[in-house]
Amino acid sequence: MEEVQTRLQKIGLDETTIKNTLKGKNALKSILQTLDLVGVKECDKKIGNLLYEMSQNLTEALDNRRALLATYIVEGKISNKLQLEGGLEYLRTHTHLEQVPAQDFDKAAGVGIVVTPEQIKNTVAEFLQNKQDLKTIRYTYNFSEYTKQLRTLLPFAEGKLLTQELNQQIEALLGPKTEEDLKAAKTQTKKPQQQQQQLEQQGEEEDDCKFDISKLVARDLATTVNSEQLLNWRKQNFPYEVLTRFPPEPNGYLHIGHAKSINFNFRLAQHYKGVTYLRFDDTNPEKECQEFIDNIKENLRFLGYTPFKTTHASDNFGKLYDYAVQLIQKGKAYCCFLSKEESSKLRTDLKPSPYRDTQPAENLEIFRKMKMGYYKENEVCLRAKIDPTHPNPTLRDPAIFRIRFTPHPHQGDKWCIYPLYDFTHCICDSIEGITHSCCTLEFEVRRDLYYWFLKELDLYRPFVWEFSRLNVSNTVLSKRKLHHLVFNNIVDGWDDPRILTLNGLRRRGYTADSINKFCDLISVTRKGNENFIGMHVLESCIRKDLDVKAPRTMAILEPILAIIDNVAEDFSEELEVAIIPRNPQKGNRKILLTKQIYLDKNDVRTEDHADFWGVAPGKIIGLKQCGPFKVLSVTANEVHLERLGKDVKPKGFLHWLSVKEATPCVVRLYDYLFEAYDPNELEDYIKGINPNSKIVCANALMHKDLLNSKPEDKLQFERLGYFNLDFDSKDGKFIWNRTVTLQEKDKIKAIAQVDGKQVQKKDVPQQKKDNAKKEAKKE
């Protein structure tokens, strides 16, 4: 293994990438295969990282193109990620080609293309000339959409230059932002406090009707109506009035958006004394694996939900094959030998496939041969025969079965043809007796196709209802972007506490109760997929939960020694403090005050300042649980204190630890992963990463009472926030992850002066009123 590690180092991979690669057999196998193929033993970092990126993005269908891509990278023809992505996309859509046309591939990968600043300037100018409504909508235009459209015109232009040019030309057209522009921008994004109040009010109003199925209104389609015979079939086979399902595709890790869906589906059924399936929609063996299946089951257990049954769509592959045969026999499906690219062009041009009128008998024979493995991957597929000119693209003869010679994680090598999601999903809903098929709004366009299959097969038809997808501020939930963050080592894996995967939330310290409370609070609506929920709403839920659950203790992030000069060397005073102040039944614990204690360097200054309430020469300070002290002297490494009588009232109290009770630990301070409210609006969302999203305090100290703590134990370090013991804590090493601070970021108030007295800015008007009343009384 050391030899392999050295080899990866020689191609310029960083240590985190190497560590993650050594853990994954497939990732390691792929990069080593690439290096062996082109004979690379050592190269510069740029080439090495491109070879690695290429290796991790190759599917089995593209494995025969590995040498082509690797050679282009080594020879410098592909020299950046944009070119690599262009080349990969071309190969994905041309898998049917035995030989890749060099000219076409070079064009797709941008080989030799250099986009000059002049080209960017001219393209942006021409683009804005066609935006006739820009002067009307002014600065409320969709920046993300504009840059996306420009990217299609200049796919290999440097993103930074493109963004700068767009901003400059728009400002030249519209002039500087006016007060009205600024007001319009403010109305687009709600303030966090307003959003919190609105959500709480909405939660109270909707609480009674949230699970009222009579309020789930959707489009009226004739194909949705069940015959009396179908209704009787369901009644005879399923005793539950309401039956829902949570149907993840096991190709990744669940995130907070999935938690919203889980919460809604399970609680909707529970409200009507019904039950919920966990069904794995496992129709794509190339992206699915047992690890994801096991992790999804564990996520449901963590959230506190027990499925009525756990099923797999793949268990119905035999039935789905039979239903496909029925469609062929009715003349409602046909086998098509067009390539993906050819088919896509015909669908775009609203033209039929030349194979559309093949007779059912011939289609049945071809389909049987597909099942037997007679054809190559992508050589032929089975399509539904609906309407190639339909205004809804999903109804333009969609593919319903394709060939994949890839073992299935649940079915093994039993099948080499696999049904596609749209065909599978509706039929599985039907045969499982689902009453309410709930999904997010991007699937609304597919509802007509859902019911077309059920009508043609005369199957029971569930009620379909779509709701808004969850978007949370200061993060990304896109599977593609999360994958990029993980595999480019921008975050520390799928359970990094800064991302909102359920694994990451759990590792950060979020409880199941807080996540479910958040889902209840935001509720479900059909207001669109563009609305955002502020991260502060989620943080508020965990604060309220841990406030009554988390024991209080103290920790020091950056220790500095403090000596109490006016007590004896062997001084020791036992203090009794509440474990959880809001929960007196938890009792008290004891801590020691001794001559030598540790303070936090963040609370210490060698020179005083008017707005500083911490430790500085000559100041009166308070130490939590043990009263006031006078600061005698401060140096870079030591503080000297004098203990005062309890009649002295300090302005605030600091946390501390006795030298005799302090023991080492590591503290990770986590913050928002992105500084931008919506990172998706940035030209390059990676540039919006918060550089202080993770700060590691390697020399921290905790109280020795915590030596018996176990992973996922939660507590409050007073003044610092709520913390969770990380899974990496072992062999006597304790690592604490900060779950959340004690105050919302936007509610941390600065200090102001009113009549010579320090008050919080929020309280300035009230303070002036109080002072006026006092003056009036004196008179």
Give a description of the structure:
The C terminus is likely disordered. The chain contains 26 helices and 27 strands. Helix 3 crosses helix 5 and helix 20 packs across helix 21. Helix 15 links the parallel strand 1 and strand 2. It is an alpha/beta fold and 779 residues long. The longest helix has 16 residues. The strands form seven sheets. It has a seven-stranded mixed sheet with strand order 10-23-24-25-21-22-11. The chain is 38% helix and 17% strand.
What's a quick, concise take on this entry?
With 779 residues, the protein is of the alpha/beta class.
Chart the SSEs and their pairings.
Blueprint lengths: L1 H9 L4 H9 L1 H14 L6 H13 L8 H9 L6 H12 L9 H8 L7 H13 L4 H4 L5 H11 L5 H16 L4 H10 L3 H15 L21 H10 L5 E4 L9 H16 L3 E6 L9 H14 L5 E4 L4 H13 L3 E4 L3 H9 L11 H13 L8 E4 L14 E5 L13 E3 L1 H11 L4 E5 L6 H10 L6 E5 L11 H9 L14 H7 L3 H11 L12 H13 L4 E2 L1 E2 L2 E6 L7 E7 L9 E7 L1 E5 L19 E4 L3 E8 L3 E6 L9 E2 L2 E2 L3 E9 L23 E10 L10 E4 L3 E5 L9 E6 L10 E4 L2 E4 L3 H15 L1
Parallel strand pairs: 1-2, 2-3, 8-9, 10-23, 12-18, 16-19, 21-25
Antiparallel strand pairs: 4-5, 5-6, 6-7, 11-22, 12-15, 13-14, 15-20, 16-17, 17-18, 21-22, 23-24, 24-25, 26-27
Helix pairs in contact: 3-4, 3-5, 4-5, 6-7, 8-11, 15-24, 20-21, 24-25
